[in-house]
Amino acid sequence: GESVGLHLPTLSVQEGDNSIINCAYSNSASDYFIWYKQESGKGPQFIIDIRSNMDKRQGQRVTVLLNKTVKHLSLQIAATQPGDSAVYFCAENRTPNTDKLIFGTGTRLQVFP
Amino acid sequence: GAVVSQHPSRVICKSGTSVKIECRSLDFQATTMFWYRQFPKQSLMLMATSNEGSKATYEQGVEKDKFLINHASLTLSTLTVTSAHPEDSSFYICSAPDRAAGKLFFGSGTQLSVL
Questions:
Q1: A44 — contact with chain B (CB < 8 Å)?
Q2: B34 to A46: CB separation less than 8 angstroms, yes or no
Q3: Mean pLDDT of chain A
Q4: Could you tell me which residues come within 8 angstroms of residue B49 by beta carbon, excluding any fewer than 6 positions away?
Q5: Percentage of chain A with pLDDT > 90?
Q6: CA-CA distance, B27 to B39, in Å (whole number)?
Q7: Contact (CB, 8 A) for B4 and B70
Q8: Do A32 and A93 form a contact (C-beta atoms < 8 A)?
Q9: CB-based contact (8 Å) between A69 and chain B?
């Protein structure tokens, strides 16, 4: 029979190009956001986080942008490498003062030579 | 650095049996831990919050009698899938917050396959 299920959106980029992965969140009370990378068969790996009192945070090759007005979060990866290929999830803390995270739907990043 | 260990990484069981998954914080103590479930090509869905010394808090729609959670010590939480059925086949992931580090760490996950 026909299989029914969600399919992750996919972003394909060439090695060396910059990648931008987007995420929309729904709860204006969320005060903490995290981007995770997940490789097949493994648990999520922390990439970068940002609190709601900031609109930009930079790490090594990664930048997270937060637009609270439109409830939008993005992850920018500079000079994308084959090792960056994975599924990326944004997560939000909807319950302040707890560590309870709600994950977004995810985006698969494919890097081709 | 802080590590969260999850065991087993993969388990295959017969329908109707129960399966226990362990989540340990190796370098830190955690009064709360979290259990997630992930189906193929989907996101992580929070199942429950495990509370050391008290009852777990389950998310809406998660059967507490089917997914038994025990957090008997500050470094160990267990999730038992009781009377497992094929539809329970999924990737189960735990996480624990390291307060000192200010970070949430995830286990490597357990792939459960129920035949």
A1: yes
A2: no
A3: 91
A4: A98, A100, B32, B33, B34, B56, B57
A5: 79
A6: 29
A7: no
A8: yes
A9: no
